[in-house]
Model the fold of this input.
Amino acid sequence: MFTKRNLLLLIITGFGLLTLGLGSWGLTESSEARYAEISREMLLSKDYLHPTLLGIKHYHKPPITYYMTTLGYRIFGINEFGARFFLSVALLIQLILVYKIGNLLFRDKKAAAASAIIYVSMPLVLVSTRDLTTDAYLTLFMIWAVFFILNYWKKCKIRDLYWFYIMVGIGVLTKGPAMLLPIGLFFFAWKIFKKTPIKITGHSFLAGSLALLISSSWFVAVMIEDPKVLQYFINEQIIHRATGAGDMHRSKPFWYYLLYAPLVGFPWFPVIIGMFIKNKFQLSKEHSEIKALSVTALLIFIAYSSVSSKLIMYVLPMYPFLALTGGYLYVNASEKWLKWIRSGLIIYGALLILSILLLNYIPAFNFNMPLSILLAVVFLGAMLVIVKSPKIVKAEQGLLLSIVTTLGLALAFTLFASHNPLQIKTFKDIVAFAKSEKEGGIDHFMTYDMLLPSVAFYLDQEVITIVDNTQKVDRETQFQHSEAYKNTLIDLTNEKEQLHLLQLLQNKKYIFLFQVKDSIPPVLKEPVKALGHSKVFGRYILYY
Done:
């Protein structure tokens, strides 16, 4: 069944369904909104060298993600769909590459197809395409680089060596040195298990120089204007993130990924581990490729567990290697294993269908009942067709069930997110309400001790951030060459800036957004009272 034509049709259909409703929910704080707003400001300013966030230079990441997002804006407009579209394209290319790598390593189209299906069926992979961050693009360039270097090792075509280094360079321009870790660990595992010597040729130096030129281009261009950027990036974005993540509320215990990595890789993560343990003795005698892939995944897991800063998306580069291992193991699994996997996926799908229906009866959530019932019926119908069809063998049933559950999960999230803005932490509805109440326009939208890029995105104008606690709102202003930013970043602990705020408040076209738990500071009590109206949105309160 998994012919080249059918696979292409499946990928195109899946791509269409995954982009269905992609712009139907608002940008989520804080990461997605941050990347979307930086890209919006970049597009409007036409300054593609200096990323800014709410008007202040923001050198946390190199610019490839911003470039991809601005391209989405140019095609689809400045909106959520435009911000997320190329994430889906990145996933599409990743699936093709995983298939090609599987076919190259295993010389088995079934194992290659199984690898691609297993990869896209992992929830973390889906999340990476529904939430704008650097991780989906980083993983794309990592997989692309692995494909080219394997092609070079297998077929000895020099052009593949150059393409490998080009992808490494672009990957560094996506998330800095984070690109080098999984690639380096893959090299280590491959060389150990394949027992192949490392050959350094003239082309290696030329291609490596090309990678260095590409990866350093943006950094050098920025440093020419301000040499402090290099020291900042090394100290703050590499060393401090690895050792002092507690300051950024990202510090997690060593076992963090041990708990959450299987959950975001469910149901395949535990299945692959189980099949690997079952076949470890056979694998120890043959298939050094599988050992290299599985050890690479393990080393990435250990490496990211060892650093202080942990977000679940950081381990995304582990999953392509895990999926390739799983694809090979799956097509070589016993009938007993295939039966267990098939039964597990049927139970998993049934639980998803039940969850979709039950969400309609949970008071804390809003759900579209007709659409959720339709989704559940279609979901159930597809599962029954797969299970009951005599033309589909058991091995293919498991993979097709995995595809259906993946698409069902993606569409259920779309349905949920588009109806529950407060639960996914988007401020789109709050800004829409504020604009409707201030029909004459809003001169000053002010947030108190909160950095909210999505407010600026939806308001399409500058937002004033009032800072009373610098630990909550830490802006890096050392790269600003003027004090113009103080018009939109006001520190209440500074008496001069307090006076500037009071001058701004003489205009009645202002709005305040607080967290409900925050006390209104004395200097703002009269201006807040003068507004006369307020509305609570979950944990936030809007004074207008």
In short: The mean pLDDT is 91. Residues 80-106 form the longest helix (27 residues). The chain has three domains: 4-333, 336-419, 428-543.
